[in-house]
Amino acid sequence: MSDVTVQYRVSFGKNDEAVEGPDDAAVVVTIAAADTGLAPTTAFMMGKLKNTGPTGPLLEALRDGSAAAAISRLASRP
Asked: In sequence order, which residues have a C-beta less than 8 Å from that of residue 76 and are 6 or more positions away?
């Protein structure tokens, strides 16, 4: 991926999120924990995976698998 930074957030409930990535990221990706069983690309197309910032870096992260890996790590928090 390019030098654009991405922050991933998996929401488990109100005020309960697992976060990976810098706070000043250019792209912020958010998905509810209940939707993490979906493939990230499918979740994005269904409107369940949301992003702020430019879409290009998100599409690259979906293509190269880095979004799926980050979301999986966050969804399986202890």
From this structure: none
pTM as predicted: 0.90
Sheet holding 16-20, edge to edge: 16-20, 6-13, 27-32, 49-52
Structure tokens at 71: 């979301």
Whether 2 shows a pLDDT value over 60: the answer reads: no
| Residue 1 forms part of a structural domain | no
pLDDT, residue 8, reads: 97
Q: Are residues 40 and 49 in contact, defined by beta-carbon separation less than 8 angstroms? A: yes
Number of domains in the chain: 1
Contact call for residues 7 and 19 (beta carbons, < 8 A) = yes
Q: Is the pLDDT of residue 21 over 70?
A: yes
